[in-house]
Amino acid sequence: MIFIYPPVAKTGEPPAGIARLSGVLASHHINHTVVDANLEGLLQIIHDTRLNPAITYDNWTARSLRNISDNYLSIRDIETYKNLDRYKRAVNDLNHAVESWTGNGACPGLANYRHNELSPLRSADLVKAAECPEDNPYFPYFSKRLIPLIHDNATRFVGFSLNYLSQALSTFAMLGFLKKKFPQLSIIIGGGLVTSWMRNPAWQNPFKGLIDHLVAGPGERPLLEILDVKDIKDKYSGPDYSSLPLENYLSPGVILPYNASNGCYWNKCSFCPEKAEDNTYVPLKTDHAVSDINRLVEETDPCLVHLLDNAINISLLKKLADFMNSPWYGFVRISHVLTDPDFCMALKRSGCVMLKLGLESGDQGVLDKMQKGIEISTASLVLKTLKKAGIATYVYLIFGTPEETDREARKTLNYVIKHKEEIDFLNVAIFNMPVCSPDIAQYKTRKFYEGDLSLYTDFEHPAGWNRKQVRTFLKNEFNSNKAVAAILNNDPPFFTSNHAPFFVMRS
After folding, report:
1. Where do the domains of the chain lie?
2. What are phi and psi of 77, to 5 degrees?
3. Least packed by Cβ within 10 Å: which of 156, 305, 500, 502?
4. CB–CB of 504/353 below 8 Å?
5. Is the peptide bond before 8 cis (omega within 30 degrees of 0)?
6. For 274-287, how does the pLDDT look when each residue is reduced to its tens digit (9 = 90+)?
7. What's the pTM?
8. CATH number of the 251-506 domain
């Protein structure tokens, strides 16, 4: 079997999903090959891109193409992270050079993939991508890479880990190519995006005859069943990163991603995709997670451990404070345990450099109506306690929820201004309503994006606080505020929270 992680997604760290599946197959003694086509495709672009003497370039394009290899190496050098402006120039130039590598309406980048005509939200367009794989800009790479792999390994199954919309068109180009060349292959697709498609109550499979198996949710057991494994072991098998090129990712050292749970242990927030898709919370036993992390740290010698849980549960968080001895970061819920100075200092000593916090709003009424289970006073104390402990914060905000008006949005602005010294990074988003949200019936909706695979819908805000008004507020009031702008300026472009810890570690 061959596992493929397709373009385009961030290339700062190896993909955790296929590493987890690789560990499961290895424990069942099933031969398989792991291909991070996302990284390999990008490296192929970097290797092949050169200035063409027959073309007249503008200054930025000429500079970015000329320095494409140097900028790749610069992003992998910790010295670059001593200066944010130097980092931004390297990343922006590298992305511009990659975007210059366009063709047939497609424009790949470091973290996105755009197409002038085809949309990943339309199943008909994904089928078109499969029918014309040679139009995909990664075709020169994957057509040469995959054929010998299929032949040399007598491959019967090819699996794709499709997690993001930015990966969808390339995924279908690759599987379309494989179906034409090797019609006997069985194609399996799973991952976060596929799960979201299949959890939509209106889902009807538009890819029959093209994809043999679609897998929603955790894929370990379904994969073994598809492979007709007779003796499926119930014993937990940890992820295996040994087949991935850990030394080539775009970070100043190995980042080790690790997921100790599926779903969210809170799972009460209104309009949350996890709740809307009915994703069950399934945590690993804390001892298993601790054992895994210790083993993987010893095997990979990471410069940073990235905990991928939607929210690290309190039990594991306390265990991390006791045993961890490597730089790490992850997403946590705002809770009273983080108001304890001694506990936060223990987290700091364990290597915690940054915590991501889903605050969403600075208004208590909005938080209550969203069922966030967060007290504003607790959030303030958490921010101050983490600051004193030397742990950076990456705070997430959402504007335009049904519970919010411009009045509450300005409360959030004032909250950020008040805590400008305790907030290191900000992620600011406009609310998107999931099409399968159980709360959707009470709102008048309209199409957000054209396409049968759209995961979100626009809605008529009960107070008239619609997307246009929210955008105007963000542009004219929130983002332009001096204190807020200073925080927003800290965010690393394209890699955002994945690279933010390195600036904290350097400082």
Report:
1. 2-49+101-226, 251-506
2. -110, 120
3. 156
4. yes
5. yes
6. 877 888 899 999 99
7. 0.95
8. 3.80.30.20
